[in-house]
Design goal:
The protein is an alpha/beta fold and 272 residues long. It folds into two domains: 226 residues, Dipeptide-binding Protein, Domain 3 (Dipeptide-binding Protein, domain 3); 30 residues, no CATH class. The chain contains ten helices and nine strands. The strands form four sheets. The chain has a three-stranded parallel beta sheet with strand order 5-4-6, covered by helices on one side. A two-stranded antiparallel sheet has the order 1-7. β4, α5 and β5 form a beta-alpha-beta unit.
Length: 272
């Protein structure tokens, strides 16, 4: 029910791109479509312990193109809730005890409200009472560190060479660790195993394949709502400043790689 397309258009002038991976924008990202090659071999080793759809179906996020699609996704969401024991009655989504489903969206910046309000509106037709709470940085950190939240907007930075830090993000041993970064509380032996294999990967090719497999398992677990990113770096510079056309992935322009073109500099000085 998360309508990225409308939010991107109304809030961000269409400038952002939907995030489709926990390792977005590089070779570590699970490939589009079905898993192939070594990634598929790795996933086949977990068949029976992961959903068949992880291997046999491509992972595709819902795309909202209008009211028809939105209503379709709302119906699908309601079916998932009713299958889980909830009841939609009188415009409210009720749990088995008859209490309305409620969720709090936690933020620490007033601008979070701008993004949170559409989420509240997306949940309303499902009978869910969603609220937004903006707290100061100290309170926010305390609540996040102690997993005292329902939903929050959190950015997770990744390495181009995943290693030990993946335990902190996804492993069972950090799911209940105060101050840890396993914000979703993931406890999955398959994910634990993939993380350990990533850490012990013997070469780059195996590291890439294992990370792609982990990415696909995480995406199919729906632990988070992938949001957005800007695929471009915006900046302005003097004409005399030159830089290599190929720049580091993720980090944007490396300012230490710039140099001054003395010929252009002289021409600029002569035009003053």
């Amino acid at each position: 029910i998360f309508d990225f397309e409308s939010m991107n258009k109304t809030l961000f002038y269409g400038l952002y791109t939907r995030t489709n991976s926990y390792f977005e924008g590089g070779e570590l990202q699970a490939e589009e479509g079905l898993p192939q090659g070594r990634e598929r071999e790795i996933l086949e080793g977990y068949r029976g312990r992961i959903a068949d759809a992880v291997i046999d179906e491509p992972f595709v996020l819902p795309v909202h193109g209008g009211q028809a699609e939105t209503r379709k996704y709302q119906r699908e969401a309601l079916k998932l809730f009713t299958d889980a024991g909830f009841t939609f009655k009188g415009g409210l989504l009720l749990d088995p005890s008859g209490k309305q489903f409620e969720i709090e969206i936690l933020g620490n910046d007033p601008t979070d409200e701008r993004v949170g309000i559409p989420m509240v509106e997306y949940l309303r037709p499902l009978g869910i009472r969603a609220t937004i709470r903006i707290v100061d940085s100290a309170q926010y950190k305390n609540r996040i560190d102690n997993f005292d939240f329902d939903m929050s907007m959190i950015s997770t930075a990744q390495s181009l060479s995943p290693g030990n830090e993946q335990r902190e993000y996804w492993s069972s041993q950090t799911a209940d660790k105060p101050g840890g970064r396993n914000y979703s509380g993931i406890k999955d032996p398959v994910i634990d195993d993939l993380v350990e294999r990533i850490i012990a990967a013997p070469d780059r090719a195996e590291l890439v394949a294992l990370t792609r497999a982990l990415d696909r398992v995480l995406l199919n677990g729906y632990y988070a709502i992938p949001m957005w990113y800007n695929p471009k770096a915006w900046f302005s510079w003097w004409r005399k400043l030159q830089f290599p056309p190929t720049q580091p992935l993720y980090t944007g322009v490396d300012l230490y790689s710039l140099w001054i073109d003395t010929e252009i500099e002289k021409a600029m000085e002569g035009s003053r």
